[in-house]
Write a structure and sequence with these properties.
Blueprint (H helix, E strand, L loop, with lengths): L2 E6 L7 H14 L4 E6 L1 H4 L6 H17 L7 E5 L5 H10 L4 H4 L3 H7 L7 H15 L5 E3 L5 H18 L7 E3 L34 H10 L16 H14 L3 H7 L5 H25 L4 H29 L2
Parallel strand pairs: 1-2, 2-3, 4-5
Helix pairs in contact: 3-12, 4-7, 4-13, 7-8, 9-12, 10-12
The structure holds adenosine-5'-diphosphate and sodium ion.
Length: 324
């Protein structure tokens, strides 16, 4: 049986990068596997958070999962901190992980660079992520390209633990799309689009108003060639727009390139805004329709309960193996 686990941090407004790279896959995978989708609030606190904002955002993200099409009858949707075993297994695995391997994590290097003081949790974050995945015996982890290194580490930690203490963990596979695993920033298409980046013009939030994202698309950095061609190396801006278009419209890049032959970037951008207005509009409408408090609380509580049943079994197995 295929079991899928993935999570998103409540560290900002989810972007179309999060949607196309992760959430869209979540929806597809819930039909063919047992799926658990988590809002990883314990990861968000690796950088300072306002408590009220964090609480509100965690629930908003759970709601957004549902608006994007995650079905609580098919998938387990919960908030990480509601299942205490994440923290517990996180510690147990920290004692099976090495500073040498954490020192190689590029996300830590990026996020800590130039900072005067950095929380210890930001450094050990990948071990908590390993715990999140291993807790549920996940076989597949749908993520964007930026998480590849963390999944590799998870595999290393699991295999080493199994070698030392006996078969305990399932070794998970990253499930990274061949296409769309890395949506780039609109203002600087050599960088990944991120919900926590400084510049607002770099990203588009899933819940953003069309009038706002229209401006961002129309201003998106391209090149002076004015030729529509897919070439990520030499034409990262145009290629990024084609990728976004293709994923939202469900049409291949080749089809789009053929359609826009001889046309300028303006037409491509204008049509992309229309496609996005349509697709994001539907998500936004569902999001606004979702009854806010009681219903969501019920779903989250039932899901956390289901998750906890699996998580407890795993932690018991791990503690037994370690002599605890
Ligand atoms: P962010 O990096 O935007 O803060 P997270 O770290 O919470 O987001 O990642 C949530 C999921 O979204 C992960 O699976 C991640 O790989 C994916 N993701 C994030 N940014 C992008 C992007 N620009 N393109 C594709 N997938 C992305
Ligand atoms: Na990320």
């Amino acid at each position: 049986m295929k079991r899928v686990f993935s999570g998103v941090q409540p560290s900002g407004n989810l972007t179309i990068g999060n949607y196309l790279g992760a959430l869209k896959q979540f929806v597809e995978l819930q039909n063919e596997s047992e799926a658990l989708y988590c809002v990883v609030d314990l990861h968000a606190i690796t950088v300072p958070q306002d408590p009220d904002d964090l609480r509100r955002r965690s629930r908003e993200i759970a709601k957004l999962y549902l608006a994007c099409g995650v079905d609580p009858n098919k998938a387990t949707v919960f908030i990480q901190s509601h299942v205490k075993e994440h923290a517990e297994l996180g510690w147990l695995l920290q004692c099976s992980s090495y500073m040498g391997e954490l020192n190689r994590m590029t996300q830590f290097k990026d996020k800590s660079e130039g900072k005067q003081s950095v929380q210890v949790g930001l450094y050990t974050y990948p071990v908590l992520m390993a715990a999140d995945i291993l807790l549920y015996d996940a076989t597949h982890v749908p993520v964007g390209d930026d998480q590849k290194q963390h999944i590799e580490l998870t595999r290393d930690i699991a295999a080493r633990f199994n070698g030392r203490f006996g078969e305990t963990f399932v070794i998970p596979e990253p499930q990274i799309q061949e296409f769309g695993a890395r949506i780039m920033a609109l203002d600087e298409p050599t960088k990944k689009m991120s919900k926590s980046a400084e510049n607002e013009g770099a990203r588009i939030a899933i819940l953003e108003d069309p009038s706002v994202f229209k401006k961002k698309i129309m201003r998106a950095v391209t090149d002076t060639e004015n030729e529509i061609r897919f070439d990520e190396e030499n034409k990262p801006g145009v290629s990024n727009l084609l990728t976004i278009y293709s994923l939202f419209a469900g049409e291949s890049v080749d089809t789009l390139v053929a359609r826009y032959q001889g046309q300028g970037y303006g037409n491509l951008k204008k049509d992309l805004v229309e496609v996005m207005t349509d697709k994001l509009g539907a998500i936004q409408q569902r999001y606004n329709e979702l009854s806010d408090t009681d219903e969501l609380d019920k779903i989250l509580a039932a899901s956390a309960e289901r998750a906890r049943t699996i998580a407890e079994r795993t932690v018991n197995r791990v503690k037994d193996a370690m002599g605890l």
